[in-house]
């Protein structure tokens, strides 16, 4: 087996990210979660009380996202920037998801910065920088206080 060139590894990371966004808009969260490597992680550095700070393993990502579309109806994603890193397996992306909060019918507009590392088996690390405070007024009171 031949090692991938740095350019091919960067392309693989970008393609995996693009696929993830397409699945998000298609509301296929199971396929989205299966983009992770079996031992991949998902971190939420700005997690609030009651929310996980880290998911370990693909199955944890599958479980976490199982009811995502019951809460948020993402209708569009706009990518603002994709920054390649020195590590060709890693990209930093700036994007915004928009749609509707299902429980309230109010607008959902969330800016994200994600640091994504992709290996041979899929996403090995996804650090998701977003904050619930950005959309708190659109959520039901129970979700904000959870």
Q: First CA to last CA: what distance?
A: 48 Å
Mean pLDDT: 92
The CATH level-2 architecture is identified as Roll
Tell me the β content. 35-45%
* H/E element order: HHEEHHEEEEH
Shape: globular
The count of β-strands is: 6
**Sheet with the most strands: spatial strand order:** 2-1-6-5-4-3
Structural class estimated from helices and strands: alpha+beta
- The number of domains: 1
The CATH topology name reads: Nuclear Transport Factor 2, Chain: A
Total helical segments: 5
CATH class: Alpha Beta
Rg measurement, Å:
15 Å
Main sheet, how many strands, which sense, barrel? 6 strands, mixed
Poorly predicted runs: 142-146
Helix coverage percent of residues?
25-40%
What would you note in describing this structure?
With 146 residues, the protein is α+β, with helices and mostly antiparallel strands. The chain has one domain (6-132): Nuclear Transport Factor 2, Chain: A, CATH 3.10.450.50. 29% of the residues lie in helices and 39% in strands. It is built from 5 helices and 6 strands; from the N terminus they run ααββααββββα. The chain has helices at residues 6-25, 29-33, 58-65, 68-71, 141-145; strands at residues 36-43, 54-56, 72-84, 90-101, 107-119, 122-129. Strands 2-1-6-5-4-3 form a 6-stranded mixed sheet. The longest helix has 20 residues, at 6-25. The chain starts with 5 loop residues before the first helix and ends with a helix. The model is unreliable at 142-146 (pLDDT under 50).
């Amino acid at each position: 087996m031949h090692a991938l060139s740095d350019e091919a590894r960067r392309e693989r990371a970008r393609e995996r990210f693009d696929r993830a966004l397409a699945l998000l808009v298609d509301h296929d969260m199971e396929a989205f979660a299966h983009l992770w490597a079996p031992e991949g992680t998902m971190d939420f550095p700005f997690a609030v009380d009651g929310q996980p700070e880290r998911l370990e393993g693909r199955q944890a990502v599958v479980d976490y996202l199982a009811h995502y579309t019951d809460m948020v109806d993402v209708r569009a994603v706009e990518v603002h920037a994709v920054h390649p890193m020195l590590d060709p397996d890693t990209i930093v992306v700036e994007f915004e998801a928009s749609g509707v909060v299902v429980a309230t019918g109010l607008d959902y507009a969330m800016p994200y910065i994600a640091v994504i590392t992709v290996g041979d088996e899929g996403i090995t690390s996804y650090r998701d920088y977003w904050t619930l405070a950005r959309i708190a007024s659109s959520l039901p009171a129970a979700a904000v206080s959870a």
